[in-house]
Specification:
734 residues, Alpha-Beta Plaits, 24 helices, 10% strand
Length: 734
């Protein structure tokens, strides 16, 4: 079996177990809905039905025309002409006659009569009995009236068909003439439409498909040729652009220099000479002053500009490339326009090619319609001619009569309601609704039920699975012929056992099965849990164990109590159970201890001996919760809590801390950090998967010892036989 998304496996065993557990979801809808349906059926009015058998006396030839209303007088095959029979029987004259004769409805005026006929029509049934006979039925609440109305309807039908024969014979000619004219006009319209369609779609018809494909191929080749020319031109254009950029970098755009005049040359020489003199003499030197004067004289005369030189080859090449680039752009634009025109033509031809199959289908359909209309026209024309030739013979020979061969009888029992069938349908519907509710509840239920489901969901080991503990002492029938059933058994008390039967019953009421019923399956499971805790203690040296759960009501205090009692009987040394649930302590109530000072009171004082706060129940030392605190988180986070636990470690061999739930409050987070190990308790059919995951993630502890699955129903598991065997062959022989 494949597991479902929540880890549960689907099998016949699981289905039966689910039905047993959710039986109320199935039984409640079945009882309520089936009861309501039964009450409803009892209130339904009884309906009676009577039928009269009508048959044709003589056979008749085929009707004139397939598709026109058949003549009821000439009917032989009732099944083929059932529509005509219904129209005749349900015609207003027939219904009005029956309504007035039997006063079926309060029909006042035309409007009231129309409503009465609409109400009466569903009560009339026509049922084919054979090719020549059919039943006319009527239903109602009064047996006598139902019989009379059915007979009257059959008689009126016989009379009506005799009257219609004469009227129908006179209408045959006009009907055939109208049909011939209609088919002639329809054929003419279809042929004209076919001709116009061929003319309008001449270029797109299937016979032009090959030519259109050839033209499309030529256009594609031309378009590809234009694309190649565009690609070549664009490649040449890119080459020209690159060469232009290279020429611009070489200075092709710079203007050519002018030629220097004699005055410009002399002025440049004097300025050079002046710079050289200034490097050797001072400003007062006559040579320098003379040079400066000559420079001023030449500047005063003015320097005419020389003529420009001829353009360089680079500049000429640059101009030629610009002209070539313009020509290339014009060619590319022309090629693109030509290619766009070719693409447009290609689109037209592609549409023609794509539409050819559809046009062929349309053309074929039109031709088929025209051919069918022509066939109908020719057939109708032949019938018209035949009708005109032997009209007198047909009127005299075509006659058939109906008669009532079996009148309606008085119904002896109602046909409706079928109460048994309705109740059975209600039962089936309620079962379906109940099963749907069970399926919905199961899909929404993410709780654990077996050890396998817990192991499939988390990697935390499952230490033990504690069965459901009854709040009363077990009842076991002594062996008789190999059978063991439930009767009360008095348990022999051990020599060191001081518990009376009343004390056992009291402890069992609080589900302390380790004390009240040591041989029960639950006590044995607590013994297995004790062995695993001792093995953990030997391997890790841990001495403080926190017992907690994700939320309240999952059995953590019950597990802590039974585990502590089992440890007290097996561990060498003293075992202490501390009720650390300072918000809602329960240990003292379950053990029957009076309100005494406890853990909260010990936290509130300093330098006090712990012994006054400890009580003893059998071999177990118990520290109750004490007075409820308003701020337990602040008290547990104090340094004094750690000091008290250190002192308790010195005085006791093993300590079990009954801690509050993890998710709603923060107390367990502090206690988990102070303890050596953490044990999580989850309750079967209650603890949700997401809640357990949230608790583990919120706690964040690395010292989680394992999980205890509480309140398991062993009777619904696959290994229930092992526990039943233990009860029969071990517990019953004590």
């Amino acid at each position: 079996m494949e597991p479902t998304k929540d880890g549960k496996r689907i099998s016949a065993f699981t289905i039966l177990k689910t039905l047993k557990r959710r039986k109320f979801f199935l039984l409640v809808p079945m009882v309520l809905i089936t009861g309501a349906v039964a009450v409803y059926t009892q209130r339904l009015p009884e309906r009676f039905r009577a039928k009269a058998l009508v048959a044709s006396e003589t056979a008749a030839p085929e009707p004139y025309l397939s598709g026109r209303p058949a003549d009821p007088v000439a009917i032989v095959d009732v099944q083929e002409h059932l529509r005509t029979i219904r129209e005749t029987l349900l015609s207003p004259p027939v219904l009005e006659t029956v309504i007035r004769e039997f006063n079926l409805y309060d029909a006042v005026g035309n409007r009231g009569l129309d409503r009465a006929m609409e109400a009466m029509t569903p009560r009339i049934q026509i049922q084919v009995d054979s090719p020549e006979a059919f039943y006319v039925g009527f239903e109602g609440g009064q047996p006598q009236q139902v019989m009379q109305v059915a007979n009257r309807l059959a008689a009126l039908f016989v009379e009506r068909t005799s009257d219609i024969h004469g009227q129908r014979a006179a209408q045959v000619d006009s009907f055939l003439d109208a049909e011939v004219d209609r088919l002639r006009n329809q054929l003419r319209e279809q042929e004209d439409g076919l001709k116009n369609y061929r003319q309008s779609m001449a270029q797109e018809l299937p016979d032009r498909l090959a030519a259109n494909l050839k033209l499309l191929e030529n256009l594609q080749q031309q378009a590809q040729s234009k694309s190649d020319l565009i690609a070549d031109a664009q490649a040449r254009r890119q080459s020209v652009v690159n060469e232009i950029l290279a020429l611009e970098n070489q200075g092709a755009l710079e203007a050519p220099p002018r030629e220097k005049t004699a005055n410009e040359t002399a002025l440049e020489d004097l300025r050079l000479k002046l710079r050289q003199l200034k490097t050797r003499y001072t400003a007062e030197n006559p040579e320098i002053q003379r040079a400066e004067q000559e420079i001023r004289d030449l500047e005063a005369l003015g320097t005419p500009l020389g003529t420009r030189r001829e353009p360089s080859p680079l500049h000429m090449r640059y101009v030629a490339l610009q002209a070539e680039l313009t020509a290339i752009d014009q060619r590319v634009k022309s090629y693109q326009q030509e290619r766009a025109g070719l693409t447009s033509q290609m689109t037209v031809y592609e549409k023609r090619i794509d539409s050819s199959p559809g046009l062929e289908t349309t053309l074929t359909q039109r031709m088929r319609d025209a051919s069918l209309t022509r066939t109908q026209y020719e057939t109708m024309l032949a019938k018209q001619q035949a009708e005109k030739l032997d009209q007198r013979v047909e009127k005299s020979s075509r006659h058939a009569a109906f008669k009532v061969i079996e009148p309606a009888q008085l119904p002896t029992a109602p046909y409706s309601p079928q109460r048994a069938q309705i109740i059975l349908m209600g039962l089936m519907a309620s079962m379906g609704l109940g099963l749907a509710a069970i399926l919905l509840v199961e899909q929404m239920d993410s709780s654990f039920e077996t050890i396998e489901e817990v192991q499939g969901f988390t990697s935390i080991p499952v230490l033990s699975a504690i069965p459901t503990i009854a709040n009363s002492l077990p009842k076991i029938r002594p062996a008789k012929n190999g059978y063991h059933g439930p009767v009360r058994v008095e348990f022999p008390k051990p020599k060191d056992d001081r518990l009376s039967q009343e004390e056992r019953a009291q402890f069992q009421a609080h589900r302390l099965t380790v004390l009240s019923d040591p041989q029960s399956i639950a006590s044995q499971q607590y013994g297995i849990l004790t062995l695993k805790v001792q093995r953990w203690r030997e391997q890790t040296g841990g001495r403080v164990l926190v017992v907690t759960s994700a939320a309240g009501g999952e059995g953590k205090s019950l597990t802590a109590l039974n585990l502590s009692m089992a440890l007290a009987s097996s561990v060498e040394g003293r075992v202490l159970l501390v009720d650390c649930d300072l918000r809602r302590p329960q240990v003292h109530d379950r053990l029957g201890l009076k309100d005494a000072a406890g853990f909260s009171d010990l936290l509130a004082v300093t330098d006090r001996d712990v012994r006054p706060f400890v009580s003893k129940v059998g071999n177990l030392y118990v520290m109750p919760g004490g007075t409820r605190l308003s701020d337990p988180v602040g008290m547990l986070s104090m340094r004094r809590t750690r000091e008290i636990l250190a002192r308790l470690r010195e005085e006791y061999e093993f300590i079990v801390l009954d801690s509050p739930p993890i998710v709603p409050i923060a107390d367990s987070h502090f206690l988990a950090g102070l303890a050596d190990g953490v044990m999580l308790v989850i309750r079967a059919r209650q603890t949700r998967r997401e809640l357990l995951q949230r608790a583990v993630e919120s706690l964040g502890a690395t010292n989680i010892l394992g999980v205890v699955l509480n309140d398991v129903e062993y009777g619904d598991t696959r290994y229930a036989y092992a526990y039943r065997y233990y009860q029969r062959h071990y517990v019953s022989r004590r």
